[in-house]
Amino acid sequence: MDQESIVYGCIKHAAYLRDKTDHRQTNRQALLSLPAANEWPLISREMFSIPTLAPTSGQYQTEVLHFGASYKAIEYEWNQWIADFESLLRGMYWVSATVHLETELSGTHTFTWNALADNHQPGSEEMQIHCEWSQETALGF
After folding, report:
1. Taking CA atoms, which of 1, 18, 95, 102 is between 20 and 30 Å from 30?
2. Is the pLDDT score of 38 beyond 60?
3. Distance between CA 58 and CA 14 in Å, rounded?
4. Residue 140 counted as domain residue
5. Contact assessment for residue 42 and residue 123, using Cβ atoms and an 8 Å cutoff
6. How many structural domains are present in the chain?
7. Structural domain contains residue 139
């Protein structure tokens, strides 16, 4: 049986900056510039919700860009996945990003990035990552 891995999460944009069209345009362009899924990249534009240029009525204060994908044993390429995701984040405006990795063999991992300033500016290298791991077992211990 194949080892399936599920990756999902969201990127949150600064609530007080969400009315800035240039921020939404920059984030939109960063996601649209990702390779197509049929090119077999680790991160593709089809796995992301693409932000609109104008605020929508479905957003209260924070713009949430969600994403998700299913992989065959992505944990073997996880360092590259993280590098690709951080490369995407470097080109976007955001306050925080969360990635959940669910694996059959090594449990669930949650990775959180936080901007070190009020928000991350495109091109900035300043970001902080935190990882939590949990594993559920059916062995009854």
Report:
1. 102
2. yes
3. 16
4. no
5. no
6. 1
7. no
pLDDT digits (tens, 9 = 90+) for 17-32: 555 778 888 999 999 9
Which tokens sit at 5?
């891995």
Nearest Cα neighbor of 106 from 71, 133, 78 is 133
Instruction: Calculate the CA 68 to chain-centre distance.
Output: 8
For residue 61, tell me if it sits in a domain.
yes
Instruction: Answer whether residue 13 shows pLDDT above 50.
Output: yes
Q: How far apart are CA 72 and CA 42, in angstroms?
A: 11
Question: How much is the mean pLDDT over the chain?
Answer: 84
Report residue 93: phi and psi, to 5°: -90, 130
| Res 83: pLDDT | 94
Q: How far apart are the first and last CA of the chain?
A: 26
The domain in which residue 75 lies consists of 4-134
What is the model's pLDDT at position 125?
80
Model confidence over 66-102: pLDDT tens digits? 999 999 989 899 999 999 999 999 999 999 999 999 9
∠ CA 111-106-65, rounded to 5°:
30
